[in-house]
Design brief:
Layout: H1 11-18, E1 24-30, E2 39-45, E3 50-51, E4 55-56, H2 73-86, E5 89-95, H3 97-103, H4 105-118, E6 126-129, E7 139-142, H5 146-149, H6 151-169, H7 173-176, H8 180-183, H9 189-198, H10 211-214
Parallel strand pairs: 1-6, 6-7
Antiparallel strand pairs: 1-2, 2-5, 3-4
Helix pairs in contact: 2-6, 3-4
Length: 224
Amino acid sequence: MFLDNKADKFVYEKEYLSLGYKYICGIDEVGRGCLFGPVTVAAVIMPLELYNENELKKENIVEEIDDSKKISAKKREELYDKIIDKALCYSIYSVDSKTIDEINIYNAVKLAMVNAVNNLNIKPDILLIDAVKLDINIKQCSITKGDAKSYSIGCASIVAKVYRDRMMNELPDFYQKYKVSKNKGYGTKEHMKTIEMYGPSDMHRYSFEPIKSNYKKTEDDLLL
């Protein structure tokens, strides 16, 4: 049905617009592989309108959208503001590390996605998602590596990334000893060294290795 045209990040959007879908929602998550902090999801509905059958009106398009991992932090901040300004609506939802440990990261991502969609001010006609199937009564299109292939998912990827990065940057000094403003919670060598020095905090994920094999989550273990 869809051509894998890497040069056209609107191929999915144009196809669904041509079929009569108006509110196309891109969804993406950030922080899935982190050892620290929440997993964060953004759901974004951008203004999209076809003319001449297969062309999009350009006035509401945010240029330079791509997978957030391929864009510099400075550029992501610029694009974030443009996306928020242009979006018909958006929603951001985070699931904390305690819940991730209780229900596992896969279910935590799905929980965050469902809540992000349910919190939108406009009900989407279709969801474009990066390879996840949600238990929700809305048509879905799962796109592997969707943040690099779909404009809508790319927008969601940037919103989620900037929001979570800001969250990491704004955490109090107690958590900054783990260098989270730099590593954003990922398991870098520097981050692992700080865990060895101080032990994991209450925002670390005890179900993730190597924390799981080396630390037991009890009240005495939590550094509050």
